Structures are given as structure tokens and as C-alpha cells.
Amino acid sequence: MDKIPILRMGRFLLVTIQVDLYDKLALDLEADLIKMVGKTNARGILIDISAVNIVDSFMGRIISNIGAMAKLVDAETVVVGMQPAVAITLVELGLPLRGVYTALNVEKGMDLLKSKVLREEETDPDDDYAGDSSV
Amino acid sequence: MAIQITKIFKKKKASILERWMQNQLAHVGLREDLISNDDLRADSSELIVTLLDTLNEKNLDDPDSSDFDPVVELLNSLSLSRARQGFSPRETGLFIIGLKEVLIGVLQEEIIDHKELADLSLKVHRLLDNFSISTFEAYIKGREEVILRQTDEIAEISTPVIRVWDGILALPIIGTLDSARTQVIMETLLTEIVESGSSIAILDISGVPTVDSLVAQHLLKTVSATRLMGAECIISGIRPEIAQTIVHLGIDLATIITKSTLASALQHAFKSLRLEVRQQRIDSVLSRVKPQ
């Protein structure tokens, strides 16, 4: 039984999808990720889909769902490394993935997550992690 | 009686070729710049040989007979190559029509009986007219291929992606945006974003004559796809008339960053990359622009 590993990096979770996502795998990933966010109190999720060549509306929806769910538990989602063909397909399918951030590669995605989370923390003094700048 | 005709033509084969060549060479419209006399002779003789090989008394009445496929094929390929070489339709057509004149001429000399002559001439006319038509069809097809290839080439060269700065791409769009072109533009832009690792793309539409709802939709698609890749897309070059049309059509471009000129788009890009471009303080004529 395949499972997509979820890595923890500080207050962020890192997911690299290296196989073509079939429906069951995607549903499992969605459930695992959201559980993991709850367990680790993660503030951001980074999903690397640079190895994904084929995308369908279901997978587009799963990514949107992850973004929306993460938002509910106060975490940001960044999808990185999307292939041009995948981007075109998603646009043609009418799934512009509102609610998730996108970045060109993992490095830029990490920077984006840091800037989003840090900015929030600066403006939100009640946040548990306020003042902790050792990210 | 009818058995005569193929015999006549076969007997007179050499003379037919000679006369036909003479006619062609004497013609004012001869394009010596496009085809040499030797090539013309080779083409002509090949056509006559193929025609006489396939022609018999039975299929003379039936111009659509599949017996003539080799002739039609040969004519098509000749016509196609002539269309590509730049022959005019008249010049291409006269090639086969010239042969008809010669064949009729031969018949006139060989057949004394008027009724039979008229009868056979009519058949030859029909047969060669049929060939002429297929020559024209092939010629037009050849020209269409040329046009299609040129369209492709224009589509290809009309979408240059320029790296204006490290991390900033610009794509000036010139001409009307249709779905096929949008597809090409989107693909080249996205591929270039991946290759160069750019985070900002500027679409300049100052060369787009009109923006209607379809064009706007294509633009929105390109912007969405760019955003999915993780890059920001700015649309620049929106002229006042175009702004007017967009608002009157009720197209919502509020989600997109739009600028009036490429310069202001570039400035915005510099700002979001935290780059600064300013004039050097030193009062030098050679003040250069450099990134900070």
C-alpha cells in the first residue's frame, strides 16, 4: 500500500508527490495531512508536485480542499513546481486553485511560507508563536 | 474503328512530345527562371508516357476510371511542386491544356472522317479537362499548404519571450489573440518561466488591436496558468480605448495587475522583487542605470 510521506520541517510540513496520484492515494494524503497539521500545530504546508505530469479534476479538487482545510486550522498552503502542462490543464478544467499559494520551486515556496507566517505573527500578538523568530 | 486512337497516339508519341515542347517553349509565359528546359522536357515526356500507358479504348469514355490514377498522381505531384516553386495558376494550367491542343491537332491530321473526328475530340477533351481540374485542385492544395506553413511560422515567431531582467519575463503580444495563439503563447511563456526561474511575467498587449470578451478570457487563462506555476503576471499596454471596451463589456480584470505601459509594469516588477533603479548622483553625462 503506497503512502505519501509527510515531512516536518520546523513549523511547516513538506509533502513531495513523486508518483501519479490515484484517487485513493490522494484521499489518504488529504486525511493524513490535515491530521498531521492538527498534531504538529504546523503553520504551513508545502506540496511539491514537480514530478506530477498528469492531473485531473479530482486531484485539482483535492489540492483545493487541502488548502481550504488548512486555512480553517490556520495554516497556509503552497503548491510548488507545477509543470506547464499541468497548469494549462488545470486552467482549462476551470480549477485555478484559489486559496492556495503557488511558487516556482521549493526554495521560493519556503520563502513565501516564511514571509506569510512571519507577517501574520508580527500583526497577531495573541499568536502562540509570536516572538519566536528562530525559523 | 475506335481502336485507332491509342494506336495513333502511340505512333505519334515522339511527335506529340516535340510539338508540345515547342508550344511550351514558344509560349510567352515560359518561366525559364523557375524551371529549366531539360526539367520541363522530362516532366512532359514522363506525363505523355504515363498517359499513353494507361490509355486504352475502354477507359477513354470514362475520365473517372481508376486506370488513370497514375496520371492523376503524377499531375498532382507536378502541380504541387509548381505551386511551391511559385508558378501562377495560369502557367500551371497551360501545361496540361497545351497537351490537349497537341493531341487534338494530331487527331485532326490522322482522322479524315468528320463525324468520327468530332466524336473522338470530344472524348479527348473530356479526359484532359478532367486532368486539368485535378491539376488545379492539387495546385490550390499546394498553395494552401504554403499558407498553412506560413501561418504556423507567424504564430511561432510572433511569440518571443524576452528576459528583461533576472527573474522578469516580458511577452509582447502583437496581433489578434485567438485560442490557438493563446495556447502557443501560454506554452512558451510557462516553459520559459520554468527554464529561467522567473517569478514575474509581463504580458504587453499594446499590439493587440481589439480586446473583446473572448480575448479577455484568453488573457485571464494565461494569467491563471502563470499564477499556478507560482509566478506573478502583469498585463501592460492597455490603451484608453481598450480600457473603455473592457469596462463597457463588463469584463472583470480586477484580480489581475494591469498597467498602462510596459515601463510602469517593469517598475512594479522591480518593486515586488525589491529592486531599485535610479539615476546616479554624480553629475555625469554618462549616468548609467544599474540595479541596486
Automatic annotation (TrEMBL), chain A:
Coiled coil: none annotated. Pfam families: STAS. Gene3D superfamilies: STAS domain (3.30.750.24). Residues 2-113 form the STAS domain. SUPFAM superfamilies: SpoIIaa-like (SSF52091). It comes from the Bacteria. This is RsbT antagonist protein RsbS. It comes from Parapedobacter indicus. The lineage of its organism: Bacteria, Pseudomonadati, Bacteroidota, Sphingobacteriia, Sphingobacteriales.
TrEMBL record, chain B:
It comes from the Bacteria. Keywords: Phosphoprotein. InterPro entries: Bact_StressResp_Reg, RsbRD_N_dom, STAS_dom, STAS_dom_sf. Pfam families: RsbRD_N, STAS. SUPFAM superfamilies: SpoIIaa-like. Residues 158-269 form the STAS domain. This is RsbT co-antagonist protein RsbR. It comes from Parapedobacter indicus.
